[in-house]
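look at this fold:
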Amino acid sequence: MIRIKHHLGPAWPFICFILLNLLLLTLSRLGLALWQFERVTDTAGWTHLLLQGLRVDLSTMGWLFGVPMVLTMLLADGHALGRAWLLLMRVWLVAGSLFLLFMELSTPDFIATYDLRPNRLFVEYLMYPKEVFAMLLGGHLLALLVVALALPLAAWGFWRFAARVCRDLRYPRFYWRPILALLVLAIGLLAARSTLGHRGMNPAMVAFSTDPLVNALVLNSAYSVGFAVRQLGKEENASTLYGPMAEDELLATLRQASGRPDSDFVSASLPTLTRNQATYRGKPKNLVIILEESLGARFVGSLGGLPLTPNLDRLSQQGWMFEQLYATGTRSVRGIEAVITGFTPTPAQAVVKLDKSQTGFFTIAQLLRQQNYSTRFIYGGEGHFDNMASFFLGNGFEKIIDQRDYVQPEFIGSWGVSDEDLFNRAHQEFEHLSQSDQPFFSLVFSSSNHDPFEFPDDRIELYEQPKQTRNNAAKYADYALGRFFEQAQQADYWQDTLFLVVADHDSRVYGPELVPVKNFRIPGVILGEGIAPLRDPRLVSQIDLAPTLLSLMGIDSENPMLGRDLTQVPSDAKGQVMMQFDKNFALLSDDQLVVLQPEKDPLGFSYSFETQKLSPAPLDPALLQTAKAYALWGSLAYNRGLYRLPDVKTESATASPTQSTRVAVNNESNAVAVNEAASDATRIELILD
């Protein structure tokens, strides 16, 4: 051993720490794999997991320790500069090892929540230390204690180990140093890239399964987060992940997929701008969108879920209930993006957080402001979270009410005031606004159903023990929602207001599929005076909601949204829903699913709505073409500034509104009636002025 140490010289400490970290990362991966034994076994992936995992770990060592090792070969010596560098090298070895250990210790709780290793989301949350620390303290105390105890002990052990391996080093002669440094550099780069190919190793290169979590276990968490950070700038262009498509082909595909005639598209410079005539022809209504935090269909009794939402179930019998509504993503900003802007999801961050969309980006608030609506965002937490305040104020919302604006709230948790406080304030705002002749639009965003699941005592009969669980929080959120509608339905503003209650996403999206479709299903109900009860079985996307609401409000508009006005879509039309799950993009049409993966071939599946299971199926070329067009459109529109309202009215060409055979006009009433066809398919007949 001493002879090996002398031959390796100043590289010896690095070799020792590399071997130590390889052991720690392998043990961590093995432990995580044993925890997920069934899913790993189902993929027959144990050998691949461990061998390719070692490859990823070696790549991580190359990136983390390669450059310091090169500098050590050049600088380490017994003189003052050399001793100073040795001290810095020792600090680097310890800090790098602590970072790797910290990431692995953080991994189990992250997997339990997101069913993936730490990724970009891990970095994004670091921007909000107050909320994150409160969440960790309230819901992940054990993990916090483990990390708090383990890291100082590990730092002490690593420092002592570094002192030992840095003793009695033999340094090469000065004329050998450049040669050795170049040799170390070459070995380090080869380890880091892990291939002689044109492109270095990436997660797609070691992925082997259709289970995203198993693919993530091949990585280590430091590599996963590092790669995600590196991709932040690149991923805004989806074509780098899914492959290019000619722009004219992309736009033609989108127009064909919309099912609308070319005459509806009215701008040469804004390719998706369409002229839209509202179905409802009465006095334009107010609009309130209630975005329910993390309320997946599995929590909703009327959708076959747990019996946690008696109030939403009751409301679903009074309004237009969507039985097969799907979110576009897994985060609140993605839900906001879909519901408020109608924008299609991309592998980049949601537009709420991107630079180019902070002003001049289309939202229904911006459109309604042009029609003299008062627009506001009402939230119980801090408006700066996830950059919401900046995005909203720059794109049509004239007022934001957040945690600072509540006077003596009844309850304050980690994420702000309770849903009861939120809805009480919203009710007060709507009563005040209804006293003026100015119509209003408000987005109300709840937060009580969020880890660590804090809510007031003695409000509900707990579904389970202990109190602070996901199911209890969902039941409390429903309680607060029910209280609000009891007030709203007795208020003056009820008869003039359209309401949408919809979830932003499910609370936890997980499973062995490339895209766990069942966990994208969410509740959605449209309520208001004149909205007759309906259970709509059609396949509906979150991006279909905004066009439908504008039509039900009586708002004619030109807008760039690709979603469908569901009041003017026949019952037998194929629905299409898109889902972004990490870097995978899926398009579901009827029971056929296409999944696009970064730098890998697309895959086809058949989806059973009864069993909620995917099974491999041949790729439908037409559906694949549509999926790719949708996946690439968001990046193209964002980067080129194509998703906006026209600057001048003359930009839109004259086109006659679409004549729909699905809308019958009758002068006798303004009610919305529902009929059932002989085939049991639902047909919506709007009876208007």
